């Protein structure tokens, strides 16, 4: 007769197995499966634990040792440690196995995965983040175990080399092997039953990001506040509506939500920037523990992020301010992700954030650690500043064609389509073409939209930052003010009665317009990058422009072939800004022509004109700033410097 305890354990184990099968079935309906890697040095118990875990989960088990080519096994038997080169072929085979298993139901794999670069090789092209179970123990314990082991090709003498090579990851579940296999497997099962990622706020972006992560097999807990009559059972409804969320858990009680998560907790806040972020943090704080990680994925002001980082560090809670770009669709299918703040937190979360991000041309994630403090949100803010000017430049090109050259919307769309086949290609141009063709009930929707541009803050913050850092980002300024000016609808309508009529046609060619547009875009990007460079110096962030532009080549709103070119140029030039790239481009005549002609026709083209002014100012050795200095000295004794020594001694003149 089996003992009562054994019967009970058997029942619990079967229920667990069933639960994991349900999770796997849930995944099948809309997400990729997770592969669990049991990693550690030789002799840490990977095979024993892996086999037992695989049985409990009802998943196949593979031992990484079986995938070594014979030459490696011979080398190890002879007591010679493997080199990185020896491991290449083996890592390739393991990566293929992992990819194959992730397309099925998942698997448990024992694999030493000693170095970070090996782990990256194992994860190559994988859509879901690997689930890492890290076995840790001290040298003596493992050595004794190995001495007792028979029939294994790895002699105990190699253990020292394994310890030397081991780079323990910051991420994953770390276990001390002292506990013994049974307890360890139980602990792993407990961990795997719990959601590993929490998300607060199921608005447009939050819901999309939750679906994105869940589709990669990430176990999610979702929280949305309960607002009677307005927001009721939001998480539950989302889980029912989207198959990829089937194995997620929904909450309306913040404490229960926090309690459901595996420790340390990873919680993504997707709530509107400003006071709502502080409010959620305050509500969550009593349920959090030291070591937990909070991430703010909204468009928060970088100084707020700085403040939250210091406040939470006094509770030993890590905080990441994460710029997420790509709108609703991007958040769902792969945004560009810009995390800044706690590096430790980034190292723990990089597998998740990278899995959720878009891929660049070379298959790398459009996600990189930006730097400390509020740098992630600062970079996202400047992304938006560049976005404002990109949008305005497109609006001006459209306006010149429509009002100044009397093109129909279809004709403009056709022209933009041709531009989109070449160096002007980009997401914003792409959506503009679609907008220009979008009709409902035979009417162009664009023509029914009031011409009053809205904004939510990042544009004006970008301009403030540029001004404070002393960077002339006049395109961001003009783009922002064009939106503000557009809101003076009544005043504009009134003033237009006194002779504001456009005198068409604007005498420029399509080629000239294209060249002017491209040159202005060069200048816009150049200015944005200059702001980032200045901020990096000012705040000591050590921003890496080649990496920043790389993660903007896909997923984000300003992705474009120009960004690809910039990223390539910066990779070659390091941190040096490619100012020469636009200065040598001979589109200046076209820009001048377009600006003059459009202004003559009474068309307001603030960003195109601003780019011409910037270019003229930047390429003039002499400027009238000497008069400014004379005036300053005249009325305020501010002093001036002399032409023969422009950065030297200060002079003052008694002007009267
Ligand atoms: C993005 C967008 C996104 C949002 C802007 C819009 O990168 O995904 O920039 O962040 O659409 O904040 O800003 P405005 O409402 O100020 O135009």
Main beta sheet, described?
7 strands, mixed
Q: Give the amount of beta strand, in percent.
A: 5-15%
Ligand species: 6-phosphogluconic acid
Level-2 CATH architecture of the largest domain: Orthogonal Bundle
CATH topology label of the largest domain: N-(1-d-carboxylethyl)-l-norvaline Dehydrogenase, domain 2
**Structural shape:** elongated
What would you report as the Rg, rounded to the nearest angstrom?
30 Å
- Total beta strands: 16
Order of adjacent strands in the largest pleated sheet:
8-7-6-9-10-11-12
Structural class by secondary-structure content:
alpha/beta
Tally of helical runs: 28
- Count the domains: 4
Q: CATH homologous superfamily of the largest domain, by name?
A: N-(1-d-carboxylethyl)-l-norvaline Dehydrogenase, domain 2
- What is the rounded distance between the termini? 113 Å
Name the average pLDDT.
93
Low-pLDDT runs of 5+ residues are none
| Helical content (DSSP H or I, runs of 4+) | 40-55%
Mind telling me the CATH class of the largest domain? Mainly Alpha
């Amino acid at each position: 007769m089996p003992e009562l305890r054994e019967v009970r354990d058997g029942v619990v184990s079967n229920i667990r197995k069933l639960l994991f099968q349900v999770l796997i079935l849930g995944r099948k309906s809309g997400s990729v499966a997770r592969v669990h890697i049991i990693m550690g040095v030789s002799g840490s118990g990977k095979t024993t634990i892996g086999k037992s875990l695989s049985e409990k989960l009802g998943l196949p088990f593979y031992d990484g040792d079986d995938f070594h080519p014979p030459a490696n096994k011979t080398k190890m038997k002879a007591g010679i440690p493997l080199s990185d080169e020896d491991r290449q072929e083996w890592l390739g085979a393991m990566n293929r196995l992992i990819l194959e298993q992730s397309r099925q139901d998942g698997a448990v794999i024992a694999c030493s995965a000693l170095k970070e670069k090996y782990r990256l090789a194992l994860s190559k092209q994988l859509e879901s983040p690997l689930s890492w179970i890290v076995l840790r123990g001290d040298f003596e314990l493992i050595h004794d175990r190995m001495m007792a082991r028979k029939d294994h090709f790895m002699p105990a003498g190699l253990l020292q080399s394994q310890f030397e090579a081991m780079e323990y990851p910051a991420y994953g579940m770390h276990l001390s092997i002292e506990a013994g296999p049974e307890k360890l497997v139980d602990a792993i099962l407990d961990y795997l039953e719990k959601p590993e990622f929490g998300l607060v706020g199921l608005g447009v972006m939050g819901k999309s990001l939750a679906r994105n992560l869940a589709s990669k097999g990430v176990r999610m807990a979702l929280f949305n506040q309960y607002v009677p009559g307005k927001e009721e059972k939001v998480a539950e409804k989302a889980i029912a509506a989207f198959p990829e969320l089937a194995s997620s858990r929904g909450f309306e009680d913040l404490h229960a939500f926090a309690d459901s998560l595996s420790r340390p907790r990873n919680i993504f806040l997707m709530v509107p920037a400003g006071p709502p972020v502080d409010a959620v943090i305050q509500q969550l704080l009593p349920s959090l523990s030291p070591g937990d990680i909070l991430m703010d994925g909204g468009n928060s002001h970088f100084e707020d992020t700085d403040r939250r980082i210091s406040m939470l560090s006094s509770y030993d809670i890590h905080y990441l301010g994460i710029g997420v770009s790509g709108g609703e669709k991007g958040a769902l299918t792969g945004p560009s992700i810009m995390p800044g703040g706690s590096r430790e937190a980034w190292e723990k979360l990089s597998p998740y954030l990278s899995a959720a991000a878009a891929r660049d041309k070379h298959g790398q994630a459009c996600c990189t650690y930006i730097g400390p403090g509020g740098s992630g949100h600062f970079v996202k803010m400047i992304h938006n500043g560049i976005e404002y000017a990109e949008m305005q430049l497109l609006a001006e090109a459209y306006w010149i064609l429509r009002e100044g050259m009397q093109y129909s919307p279809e004709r403009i769309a056709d022209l933009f389509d041709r531009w989109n086949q070449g160096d002007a290609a980009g997401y914003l141009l792409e959506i503009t073409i679609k907008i220009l063709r979008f009709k409902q009930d035979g009417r162009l929707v664009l023509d029914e939209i009031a011409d009053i541009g809205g904004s939510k803050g990042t544009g004006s913050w970008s301009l403030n930052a540029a001004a404070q850092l002393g960077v002339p980002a006049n395109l961001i300024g003009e783009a922002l003010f064009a939106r503000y000016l557009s809101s003076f609808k009544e005043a504009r309508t009134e003033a237009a009665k006194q002779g504001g009529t456009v005198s068409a046609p604007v005498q420029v060619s399509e080629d000239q317009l294209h060249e002017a547009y491209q040159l202005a875009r060069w200048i816009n990007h150049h200015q944005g990058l200059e702001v980032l460079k200045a901020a990096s110096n000012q705040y000591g962030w050590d921003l890496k422009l080649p990496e920043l532009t790389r993660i903007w080549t896909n997923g984000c709103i300003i992705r474009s072939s120009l960004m690809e070119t910039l990223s390539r140029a910066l990779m070659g030039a390091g941190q040096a800004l490619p100012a020469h790239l636009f200065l040598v481009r001979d589109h200046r005549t076209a820009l001048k022509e377009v600006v003059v002609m459009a202004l003559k026709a009474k068309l307001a083209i603030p960003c195109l004109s601003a780019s011409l002014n910037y270019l003229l100012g930047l390429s003039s050795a002499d400027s009238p700033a000497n008069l400014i200095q004379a005036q300053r000295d005249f009325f305020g004794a501010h002093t001036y410097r002399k032409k023969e020594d422009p950065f030297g001694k200060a002079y003052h003149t008694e002007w009267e």
